[in-house]
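Supplementary notes for students who missed Thursday's class. We covered one full example, reproduced here. Read the sequence, then the structure, then the short commentary at the end.
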Amino acid sequence: MARPKSYDRDVALRRACEAFWAHGYGPLGVRAIEDQTGLNQFAIQREFGGKEGLLVEAMMFYADSARRYALKPMATDGVDSIVAFLRGLVANGSPTSSKWGCLLVNSGIENAEIRSARIKAVSTAYWRSLRKHFAAALRRSIDRGEIQKKLDVADISAAMVTAVMGIHAANRIAGSNQGGAHLVRMIEAQIESWRT
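Structure (token representation):
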């Protein structure tokens, strides 16, 4: 007979997100993971397939949360939703703003050394989704006549994804959710210049 779980999976994943987000994959040992998540070594291995599996699931949990909340307005709105999203990356009290930057950016950078196909797949899927959300909001604003028609939506949406990565990296480097604020202001000014 299987032992009942002594933890709530979503709570454990949220805590794992915070642990990996704050400390990174490499420096975070199994004992620290146990302390910060409430999971024991058996559960980490059995339920998640080890430390890497826990990180992958934490990244998916983090990305799904971002899609449901932070990206959702871009599914129906135009460039104003892009501006709101960008401001949220450097706003106090925003769930997308942190002195740690972004779990997906941090893990993607660290994965250059780890070389995990699973970590890369989760990161790539999220950045592709973000690019599609940016493109949809830009097209909607073009169709509504809010911004210029001549804009290259594909290039701009790809560049915005790179800018988001930079904003998060600047926050992490500064140890402040305001580290990337200058980049947000620059992008806002650029968006304003596109208005008709």
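Commentary. The two ends are 67 Å apart (CA to CA). The CA atoms of residues 38 and 75 lie 36 Å apart. If anything here is unclear, bring it to office hours.
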